[in-house]
UniProtKB/TrEMBL annotation:
Similarity annotation: Belongs to the TMEM14 family.
PANTHER family registered for this protein in UniProt: TRANSMEMBRANE PROTEIN 14 HOMOLOG, TRANSMEMBRANE PROTEIN 14, 15
Compartment(s) of residence: Membrane
One GO cellular component term noted in the UniProt record for this chain: mitochondrial membrane
Gene3D superfamilies: Transmembrane protein 14-like
Any single biological process term in GO: regulation of heme biosynthetic process
InterPro entries according to UniProt: TMEM14, TMEM14_sf
TM helices/strands, residue ranges: 5-22, 28-44, 79-98
Main location: membrane
Origin organism lineage: Eukaryota, Metazoa, Ecdysozoa, Arthropoda, Hexapoda
Highest taxon of source: Eukaryota
Species, as recorded: Drosophila erecta (Fruit fly)
Gene, per the UniProt record: Dere\GG22885
The protein's name in its UniProt record: Transmembrane protein 14 homolog
């Protein structure tokens, strides 16, 4: 399995967003959440880069971030940062589901 570059860039973007939130507004929750989610996504990208990919951590984290930031984007109407993270999260979900669909289905079942 090749290296999950998109996953690593996504993780770094989320972590950098938390750092930027702290630098601009002094938001400690933004820093903590950005670094925590960035670390989870980075570890998920590492797991996706293994011989047998394990996408569930990255899928779950991306789903959570897409929902949370999508709701914030809907409330605020601002593209940065909530809209951008929501769109990146949806892209990560689609990428992982399309690439790793065969690893998510239970053994012995066939795709419709």
């Amino acid at each position: 399995m090749p290296v999950d570059w998109f996953g690593y860039v996504y993780a770094a973007t989320v972590a950098a967003g938390g750092i930027m939130g702290y630098a601009k507004a002094g938001s400690i929750p933004s820093l903590g959440a950005g670094l925590a989610f960035g670390a989870l996504l980075g570890y998920g990208a590492h797991m996706n880069s293994q011989e047998t990919p394990r996408p569930l951590l990255q899928l779950g984290t991306s789903l959570f971030l897409a929902g949370l930031m999508g709701a914030r984007w809907n409330r605020s109407g601002k593209l940065m940062p909530a809209g951008m993270v929501c769109m990146l999260s949806v892209a990560a979900l689609v990428k992982n589901l399309a690439t790793y669909n065969r690893y998510l289905m239970p053994t012995g079942t066939k795709a419709p």
